[in-house]
Amino acid sequence: MAVSIETDAISQRLQRVAAQAGLPEVEVSTHYGTPALKVGGKAFVSVKNGETIVLALPIDRKEQLIEMAPEIYFQSDHYVGWPALPTRIDAIGDEELQLRLIEAWQFRAPKTLRAAFDAC
User: Fold this and answer.
1) pLDDT of 2 strictly over 70
2) How confident is the model at residue 119, as a pLDDT?
């Protein structure tokens, strides 16, 4: 699957915001053929298409965010029951995105790495 200019730009934005958050050991990779950021070999955010990213978050947190900001976060049938939150990339600002990337990274990071990051 070829990476489009749109998804490449989104991937670059995710990398920039993750770097600004100071997230350690972030790997630029792919997840099911689309650009993704991983920690410990696990994707914590992936680019679904030119409009949507998918964040790895606990199901209860996912439901809170959808209720809090339905213009940004949403659910589709494919993700029901899974710890994955579709997010409208054009609707989320960098500050909010950084908070969600930190949450997703913490959800997927190995315990020792997460503990070291949380201690900082």
Assistant:
1) no
2) 87
What ranges do the domains of the chain cover? 5-111
What digits encode the pLDDT tens for the residues 24-43? Answer: 999 999 999 999 999 999 99
Contacts of 78 (CB under 8 A, 6+ apart): none
The pTM for the full model equals: 0.94
65 contact partners, CB below 8 Å, separation of at least 6: 57, 72, 73, 85, 100
Cα distances (Å, whole numbers) of residue 33 to 7, 54, 91, 92, 114: 12, 13, 24, 23, 27
Count of all residues that appear for the chain in the document = 120
26 touches 37 (CB < 8 A): yes
* Fold assignment, 5-111: Aspartate Aminotransferase, domain 1 (3.90.1150)
Helix axes 5-20, 94-108, angle to 10 degrees: 80
